[in-house]
Amino acid sequence: MAGTFSRLLYHVVFSTKSRTRFIDPKLRTELYPYMGGIIRRQGGWLLSLGGMPDHVHILLRLKPDVAIAELVRHVKGGSSKWVHEQKGLCPDFAWQTGYAAFSVSESKEATVRSYIERQEAHHRRTTFEDELLTLLRKHNVELDPVHVFD
């Protein structure tokens, strides 16, 4: 084969530290576009970003030479630094240490995008903790539920 061909889609989920409800509507309005800019600068394409005051879901596409761990490190670190530079916006803001990332089939892109866009409705029925455990189990991630949350 003469070239490299790929289409790598990821669904990334992470929460604020201790699941504190830091992301109010004012912060979200500025934070989400900033996070999208970080993703673009790191060689990714943001397809959807949504969440709740205590966590975010990101659907993105990456080139094969970009490691998901590095991208998430840049998104979390860069966005946290940016929030702290905004005087009075959210001085205690922090992300949790870890994250979850799942590969997404091309045939499921629209489903995952819709899921991310409907987070408010989804969380009228379930907590973030239950949602994350469900996602981890659905994707057959081996885990000890005692050590999932900080």
* Count of individual helical segments: 5
Radius of gyration, taken over Cα atoms and rounded to an integer in Å: 15 Å
> Order of helices and strands, N to C?
EHEEHEHHH
Biggest β-sheet strands, sense, barrel: 4 strands, antiparallel
What's the overall geometry? globular
Which consecutive residue ranges, at least 5 long each, have pLDDT under 50? none
> How many independent structural domains?
1
Work out the helicity level.
25-40%
The neighbouring-strand order within the major sheet is 2-3-1-4
**Proportion of beta-strand residues:** 15-25%
Q: What is the first-to-last residue Cα distance?
A: 46 Å
- Number of beta-strand segments: 4
Q: What class do helices, strands and sheet pairing give?
A: alpha+beta
Broad CATH class: Alpha Beta
| Overall mean pLDDT | 93
Looking at this structure, what is the CATH superfamily?
Answer: Transposase IS200-like
Question: If you consult CATH, what is the topology?
Answer: Alpha-Beta Plaits
- What's the architecture, going by CATH? 2-Layer Sandwich
